[in-house]
Amino acid sequence: MFFERPGGGERAILVHLDGQDPEAREDPQEFQELALSAGADTVAFVSVSRTQPTARYLIGSGKVEELQQRVKAEQAELVIFNHTLTPSQERNLERAFECRVLDRTGLILDIFAQRARTHEGKLQVELAQLEHMSTRLVRGWTHLERQKGGIGLRGPGETQLETDRRLLRVRIRQIKQKLEKVRGQREQARRGRKRADIPSVSLVGYTNAGKSTLFNALTSSDVYAANQLFATLDPTLRRLELDDLGPVVLADTVGFIRHLPHKLVEAFRATLEESSNADLLLHVIDAHEPERMAQMEQVMAVLGEIGAEGLPMLEVYNKLDLLDGMEPQLQRDAEGKPQRVWLSARDGRGLDLLRQAIAELLGDDLFVGTLQLPQQLGRLRSQFFAMGAVLSEGHDEAGSSLLEVRLPRVELHRLVSRAGLQPNEFLEQHTLQ
């Protein structure tokens, strides 16, 4: 009800502040790509050199007058700032330009609103939009009198404003309750996978690094993939079969971006928990991107916010097809463990190396093999079944059970020890080659 969008692309002027602080500075090229992803028709790009933002307009009054003339000359319907604006700055600028003004957070929220497909995704976007809008409600009632108050002086705007705020609070509470339910369902599904001992692998990375293309190439899926920011919003899970390891669950998640609004991190916490609860993170990196080191730092910062920075991670350098003279390769650390894989998701080169690296990292502490259990070890056999560790069962001529099992070595040793056997001796005697 709040977020009706116009049919065509809106004529927009983009305003970028070029300050001295490298931490606060935004990428102008990324800003233009965001506007393009939102469907804006950019008619002008204005770079403002300013170290100290002003409280009234963020930019200086002289630049505001210059932009006023530009808005009229270009017949712009929208001015987008590549920075966060306070509600008062947004109102002051709208009054000056006589058109809508949007900041970076509002722009990202708009893209998210367009891309959400599932019920959960739409709820998460609506929550972030409502929380962002709750501080900007006054703007909608400037046509009504809003006086200082007092007996006999209260205008209808104040009453309407309070009604809207109350309705917003009610709706926000309802959405949070629904998302809490979704969170519980996800947690239940994760517990089920854990009981079945199916490892989970989550794709994380900067937006437009090629996560969805890689996801499709690995799982033969048809998840929407495009060369644009935030092409993927709703998380997708697929089963992936790996040699010598068996099935794993692969999750494609929303991409991260520099200074990702905190409201979005909070709203998408249920989705991002797929990453924070994964057994392995695949950090997909655009190998062709000049700013890839800064992008990697941003991804690690968001992972820190959701408590996933300490999880096992494999770096996947994608888009090898855009680099001259580079061949797919698997690089290892000093201990011989896979550390990074160079590949091209688009043409499939290096995917075999990625599968090998995932199997090595997840299979390090995993036992996959066939055990020959005589009838006197029937209780141990039933414990393997109770754990969901048995992939298949057969029998030999002597009546022994031939169990193809898959479970963590620590669990295998614990079960064998509780049966009164020595784990190493047991494996030597009962494992079929």
Automatic annotation (TrEMBL):
Keywords noted in UniProt:
Coiled coil, Cytoplasm, GTP-binding, Magnesium, Metal-binding, Nucleotide-binding
- UniProt binding sites for Mg(2+): S212, T232
GO CC, any one term = cytoplasm
- What is its subcellular localisation? Cytoplasm
What does the annotation say about its assembly with partners?
Monomer. Associates with the 50S ribosomal subunit.
What SUPFAM superfamilies does the database record attribute to this sequence?
Answer: EF-G C-terminal domain-like, P-loop containing nucleoside triphosphate hydrolases
Q: Is the keyword Disulfide bond assigned to this protein?
A: no
Give the originating organism: Pseudomonas indica
What are the protein's GO molecular function terms? GTP binding; GTPase activity; guanosine tetraphosphate binding; metal ion binding; ribosome binding
Q: Which cofactor does it need?
A: Mg(2+)
Name of the protein in question: GTPase HflX
Q: Where does GTP bind?
A: 205-212, 230-234, 252-255, 318-321, 344-346
Primary localisation category:
cytoplasm
